[in-house]
Structure formats: C-alpha cells, structure tokens
Amino acid sequence: MGAYILRRLLLIVPTLLGIMVINFVLVQFVPGGPVEQVIANMQGQGDVFESFSGAGSDAGTDMTAQGGGNSDYIGARGLPPELIKDLERQFGLDKPPLERFLNMMWNYIRFDFGESYFRKVEVTDLVLEKMPVSISLGLWSTLIAYVISIPLGIRKAVLDGGPFDTWTSGIIIVAYAIPAFLFAIMLLVLFAGGSYWQIFPLRGLTSDNWEQLSVAGKIADYFWHIALPVAASTISAFATLTLLTKNSFLDEIKKQYVMTARAKGLSEKRVLYGHVFRNAMLIVIAGFPTVFIGVFFGGSVLIETIFSLDGLGRLGFEAAVGRDYPVMFGTLFLFGLIGLVVNILSDLMYVLVDPRIDFEKREG
C-alpha cells in the first residue's frame, strides 16, 4: 500500500503542472487583462468587458507576474505610452510568458501566492477568509445528502420494483434533472419574500445583529440563513447517493452469504443490518471525501452568487471577471492540489473501511 500511495503522490506533480499550464496558456489568448481593467476604470467605463465595448475594479499594484494580456489595449488611445508601460511593469506583464509562468510556479511551490491586484490583500488571507462559507455549504449539504440517501436507498432496495420504488425513483429523477441554480431561485421566490412567503432571509450567512445574539441565538440564526443554500446544493447530490445505495444493497442481497443467512433462520432485519449493510455501505461511506469535494466546488459559484454568500466560488468568479490573476491562479493551484489529495484520501478510506481491498494487487 505504501508504494501505491507514493506513486499517487508523485503523480500529483505532473497532473497539477498540466492543469496550471493549460489554464495559463488559455489566459494568454483571452482578451483583456489587468492593464485593460485599470484603463477602463480610468476612463470610467466600468469593467474590462466594456473596454471592448469596457469593465473595472479599483486599481492596485502587484509586482508578481501571474497572467497574460494583449499589448494592443483597446481604449488606451490618448493615454501616455509611459503609463501603459508602467502598468505592464507593475503587473509583471513586461516579461515573456514563459518567464512569468516559471516565476509563478516557483512561488506556488513555496505556497507564496502573492497579493491580489485590486484588493491589496494576500491571496492566502482571502482564501482563509472566504473558506468558512464554502465549507459550511459543502459539509452540511453532504451530511444531509447522506442522511436522506442511505435510508431511502435501503428502502428502495428492499422494495425493489414495488410502488414505493417506482414513485420515489420518479422524484429522484426529477430532482436530479433540476439545476441547482434554478432550484435556488425557486426557493427564493417561494420562501424568501420573492412573491409568496418571507420565511427565510434573502442573503448572507448571518444577521446584522449577530454579535448581540446569545450562543443559542447565533446557532439558530446561522441555520436560519444556511437552510435555503444548503437545500439548493443538496437537491442533485442526494439523488446520486440514493441510487448508489440502492444498487449496492441489491448487489449484496443477491450474494450467496445472504441466502445462507436466511436459510439459517435469521430475521430479515438481522440479515439486512447485520450482514448486508456493512458490505453494501463500503462504497458509499468510502466515497464521502469525493462527494464532499464535489459539493464543495461544484455549483458553489451560482449558489453563493444567488444567496449573496461571500465564499470561495464567488471569489474565483469575481477574480476571473476582474482579471485578478494572482487570485485566479492561486485558487486554481490550491483547489487542484486539494482535489488530487482528496482522491488519494478516498482510496485510503476504501482500505480503512474494508482491509481486504488491495490497490497494489489490482494495479498488478
């Protein structure tokens, strides 16, 4: 097992490098850049997209080279060439792309992600500031999905082909087909004062008077705010887990040891929960890290934007729109590294749950 883990750890390096290379190269061909942002802001055009027709952010300086851009800055006519050159130097865009990439990766290897171009805050500090929101969404959505999916999947397996299995499958298919962002909007319209009931808050993770609340009040306020975003994030996750649980149980129920246990006179409850459950849950329990990361990263941008939650998904989206390359590439590197490490942890979970699994023999 040690050799397998070592091989997987070594594969992280070329995989992560490939992710960074592909994204860095793509950025070189994307119109606009931090210099365009500054020019658009100076000319009062708003943001970089409006500089082709313009966009904007408050300009800051960062000497770290992170991305690319076009030297023919549309909208820069009338500005002194010296100013354009100075902006390129400040953003590190006066160096060749290869040199910028190598400098960036050398810094990232040492976990030095630089400073945001426009916020004048270290990228690491920004990530740590936004992470609690994304962790809250990912963790609660995953836990709720498991709490719903495991009992429902077991029940569907036991009553396979019956009316309960049929109509719950219909609900699951519909739930899986509904995009999370569309479900989030529907929840806002129905329960956040959109057109019907004002039961839940419209935005944010806490109330304005959070600091004045008691401990119990803070807990209640937190769950009051997180209810709708978590529901929107969970809608599709529980569908996959339910079907996975059902299929795992069906596979185990058909095996010889189950028939032997029944022949010995064991009750159906003892067979299901004393024998089948332990084996059928291996793949479901061991996949927890992967499911959590999937919920953590997938769809978080739209959910956080719709509910005005200041999390990592929204941070990455705003960095991409604002061409804040240190934040873009810093978060990409961190998320890529976390995802690759979690895949290894997921394999280790399989071994921990079932020591009979041997990845080295499977590879051989």
From TrEMBL:
GO cellular component entries: plasma membrane
Residue ranges of every copy of the ABC transmembrane type-1 domain listed in the record: 131-346
Organism of provenance: Roseovarius halotolerans
Designated name of the protein: Inner membrane ABC transporter permease protein YejB
Superkingdom, natural source: Bacteria
Membrane-topology annotation of the record: Multi-pass membrane protein
Compartments in which it is found: Cell inner membrane; Cell membrane
Database matches in InterPro entries: MetI-like, MetI-like_sf
UniProt-listed SUPFAM superfamilies: MetI-like (SSF161098)
Keywords: Cell inner membrane, Cell membrane, Membrane, Transmembrane, Transmembrane helix, Transport
Residues spanning the membrane: 9-30, 133-154, 166-192, 222-245, 280-307, 327-353
GO BP terms: microcin transport; transmembrane transport
Family classification: Belongs to the binding-protein-dependent transport system permease family.
Record-linked CDD domains: TM_PBP2
